[in-house]
Amino acid sequence: MTVLPPPRATTGVLPVRLLTRVECGEELPALVWRAGAGWRMISSAVLGGGIGERTWVLNAQVSHGYRRTDPEAHLAGLAHDAGMRGPGVGLMTAADVRRYGHAHDGGVEAVATAGLGVRGWAAAPAPGSAAPPEPGTINIVVAVPAPLTDAALVNAVSTATEAKVQALLDAGHDCSGTPTDAICVAARTPRPGDQPDSFAGPRSLWGARLARAVHCAVRAAAG
């Protein structure tokens, strides 16, 4: 992969970098956050999903009409090629990740990419499917510079999702998201003597900041 300067300045706890690679003759970018040690993450990602210690996040753009049936292995290979080692989170999207939104509020930072070609409401009458959906995708990565309990991490995902929907409506999109939206929330690993926050709802200290940061980042990415 080739490292390029970030399209916008992203400093603080969530400094993303833009990488490019060539696949099947197509140049494709990816956003990378080398978080390092000291972070616990919760994610719905295909690679590194669940809750645990993670040291990096990769948000890779893939071709429209993506047909690979091994996205986890694909993302793991891309991360390895980018020099990332240890446990991490891998997201993918068909959206142009160079057009990401970045926002911060009270120490919380959020980065969002938005592909809205296939969008709709979550509670739709259409039947579900066991087949993996195509990646269109709103991907959200949030960093909270404080320790959170497992329950608060789950609460943070809910808060971020509410803020995402609010941002889409504010941007004029009549939808709650896409069928393949994914999220990653990172919080600091507790150190001896720390008391992790037990709440991350939209009226809690960190949840309110997270909601505003996600809203601004998604609003910017969705246009």
What is shown here, in short?
The chain is α+β, with helices and mostly antiparallel strands and 223 residues long. It contains three helices and eleven strands, in the order E-E-E-E-E-E-H-E-E-E-E-H-E-H.
Contiguous runs where pLDDT drops below 50 for at least 5 residues = 2-9
The total count of strands amounts to 11
Radius of gyration: 16 Å
Largest sheet: 6 strands, mixed
Number of domains: 1
Q: What is the fold named in CATH at topology level?
A: L-amino peptidase D-ALA esterase/amidase
Q: Which assembly state applies to the chains in this document?
A: single chain
Helical proportion, percent range? 10-25%
* CATH level 1 class label: Alpha Beta
- Count of DSSP-assigned helices: 3
Distance between the termini: 28 Å
Please list the strands of the largest sheet in the order they lie side by side. 5-4-11-10-9-8
Q: Proportion of β residues? A: 25-35%
Helix/strand order, N-terminal first? EEEEEEHEEEEHEH
Give average pLDDT, whole number.
Answer: 91
What is the global morphology?
Answer: globular
Structure description:
The protein has 223 residues and is of the alpha+beta class. It has one domain (2-222): L-amino peptidase D-ALA esterase/amidase (4-Layer Sandwich), CATH 3.60.70. The chain is built from 3 helices and 11 strands. The protein has helices spanning 71-81, 150-170, 205-222; strands at residues 2-4, 17-23, 26-33, 39-43, 50-53, 57-61, 89-93, 101-105, 108-114, 138-144, 182-188. Strands 5-4-11-10-9-8 form a 6-stranded mixed sheet, covered by helices on one side. Helix 2 (150-170) packs parallel to helix 3. The longest helix is centred in the last third of the chain and has 21 residues, at 150-170.
